[in-house]
Amino acid sequence: MKWSIQQLRSFQRKGLEIDETIELDSISDLEPEIRDLTPVHITGNAEVNQNRAVFHLTIKGAMTLPDSVTLQDVLYPFHIHSTEIFMFDPDHGMDANEEDIHVVEGNTVDLIPYIQENILLEKPLKVISSEPTDNPPAPPSGKGWDVVEEEPDQEEKVDPRMAELAKFFDKNDEK
């Protein structure tokens, strides 16, 4: 998923077709909540001219995330459509309104960081499994934490403002 500018310019007339499956094991270093990522299938094409390359990509795969309630693994499939624009010469024809244009630094265009960014943006904040489970709602402890339950006081405490009223009810119970 890496091309030199010279290689891309050779695709000016015929275009570039993309159909690859890649492993992105390093994505869990960027986002620790992603426990696993299936091989990612990337399809699309690129339109190349002398000054820029426009990649129209479809990114498919599935990531394993923790369930928000039980912390069990949940497979979350994704299907992303993305358009990435790379300018070879930033001084030539750059539109000031375009925020999503990437200026090529050096002599190569590498799509991997942009594919990873799109996958990270697709990750939901919370995932809840739709499958029933017999597991407890959450583990009682984890790395650096434990669930602490407070024991209720056994002795009944009377609000000091209501102490006189409590004496009134005690007298009625005696009769």
Compact summary:
The chain has 175 residues and is an alpha+beta fold.
- Say what oligomer this is: single chain
Q: What does the average pLDDT come to?
A: 83
**Secondary-structure element series:** EHEHEEEEEEHEEH
Q: Which residues form runs of ≥5 with pLDDT under 50?
A: none
Spatial extent as radius of gyration: 30 Å
Question: Care to describe what's here?
Answer:
This protein has 175 residues and is an alpha+beta fold. The protein contains four helices and ten strands. It has helices at residues 5-9, 27-30, 112-122, 163-174; strands at residues 2-4, 16-22, 36-37, 40-48, 52-66, 73-87, 101-103, 108-110, 141-142, 145-146. The strands form three sheets. Strands 2, 3, 4, 5, 6 and 7 form a six-stranded mixed sheet that branches. Strand 5 and strand 6 form a beta hairpin. The mean pLDDT is 83.
